[in-house]
Amino acid sequence: MNKSIDIHKYCGAIHIHTVNSDGTGSVSDIAKAANRCGLSWIIITDHNNLDIEEGYIDGVLVIKGEEISSEYGNHYLAFGIDNFIEPSDNCEKNIIKVRENGGFGFAAHPDESVNRKNKYKPLRWTDKNNIPDGVEIWNWFSQWADNYNSNNIFSVIYSYIFKNNLVKRPASDTIKWWDCLNNSSDKIIPAIGGTDAHAMRVRYIIPVTIFPYKFMLNTIVNEIYLDCPLSSDFNIAKEQILSALKSGNNVIANKSVCKKIPEIYVLNSDSFAGCGGSISKDENTFLYVENSVISNIKILKDGIEIHNCKAKSCKLKISQTGKYRVQVEMNKRGFAYSNPIIVK
Ligand SMILES: [Zn+2]
Ligand SMILES: [Zn+2]
User: Fold this and answer.
1) Ion ligand 1, residue ranges at CB < 5 A
2) 20 to 30 A from 336, CA-CA: which of 127, 179, 253, 293?
């Protein structure tokens, strides 16, 4: 079995704001930044707004979504909808409305810290019994804001200069919830990573853009595996990306840790399964993790760690059914998180 014939990888960024909500850039500015970052696709998700232009812009597939945002939290990233959805404080209503409109959604930044020491109000998922279609397990700006202490000048300077150091790994409560959702479902409850890019302008002595789009689009990204190349026809390509995210055919990675994202897949004697896929086990079933440098590789089955090694790549024999996922850490920082692969 040669898995290389089956993989077409496309890296993209999710959860980006434009001037249509609280971002400062136009779609064209963001597409240009995405192109410079080498991304193939982006999904723009303005708060309670679905007005942006979609299409191939500056060589990047630009897809629109909506961050359904009530002021109390329960932000919901909705994809595949054609009509704007009015936010409800009740997240169950938002989940249902997105489904009724033919779309699907991800709970955004569900565990923002209640102990923040700055002006950014935590906007959490208030009732975890309300089950979303998927979970945004890692959000760059949300985690930066969780750890940013604006009361101390040294901390402020550190937080801007060494900004990536404030974004270590996904919140453990979010990972636990996501594993729990997967353990109580036969299907994959998919995960995504978001940037929450705004390119905010702040006036100190002169106006300064903090965290420009080009910086943000080089942080938390999603590498999608497709079984055929991304179409040059916008509508087909949009469908390819959205259905891959709905199925969990992506690895979430922080490119500020390492530029090359590991390949993660399972092979048996005659077939291949990437993230979000499923495969039947036989005597020759192995899970592969192929990274470009030495890293800490953890393999989990049904949310429980079953293997841990420090290596560039890893091959683990699979003899039990379950949902397998992989976490890769480098230099004590979270780097890559796969969606689960179902072994039947
Ligand atoms: Zn939000
Ligand atoms: Zn947002």
Assistant:
1) 75, 108
2) 127
The pLDDT of residue 3: 53
Phi, psi of 96 (to 5 degrees): -70, -40
Do the Cβ atoms of 236 and 212 come closer than 8 Å? Answer: no
Q: Which ligand is nearest to the CA of 21?
A: 2
User: What does the mean pLDDT of the chain come to?
Assistant: 95
Same domain, 302 and 284: yes
As a residue count, the chain comes to 344
Given 256, 277, 302, the domain boundary residue is 256
Ligand 2 centroid – CA 321 distance (Å):
37
From the CA of 44, how far away is ligand 2's center (Å)?
10
Whole-number Å distance, alpha carbon 259 to ligand 2 midpoint, is: 24
pLDDT per residue over 4-25, tens digit each? 556 899 999 999 999 999 999 9
Give the whole-angstrom CA distance, residue 112 versus residue 175: 13
In this structure, the answer to whether residues 236 and 326 fall within a common structural domain is: no
* Residue 282 DSSP one-character state: -
- For 79, the token pair is 């994809």
The answer to whether the CB of 249 falls within 8 A of the CB of 274 is yes
Kindly give the distance from the C-alpha atom of residue 112 to the centroid of ligand 1, in angstroms, as a whole number: 10
Q: How far is the CA of 75 from the centre of ligand 2 (A)?
A: 8
pLDDT tens profile 140-154: 999 999 999 999 999
The C-alpha torsion from 75 through 77 and 82 to 87, rounded to 10°, is: 0
Q: Give the domain range for residue 313.
A: 262-344
Q: Which of 328, 331, 332, 335 is nearest to 314 (CA)?
A: 328
Give the pLDDT band (50/70/90) at residue 202.
confident
Alpha carbon of 66 to ligand 1 centroid (Å): 10
Reported pTM = 0.96
Residues 186 and 316 in one domain: no
DSSP state of 286: E
Q: Are residues 156 and 287 in the same domain?
A: no
CA of 168 to the centre of ligand 2 (A): 19
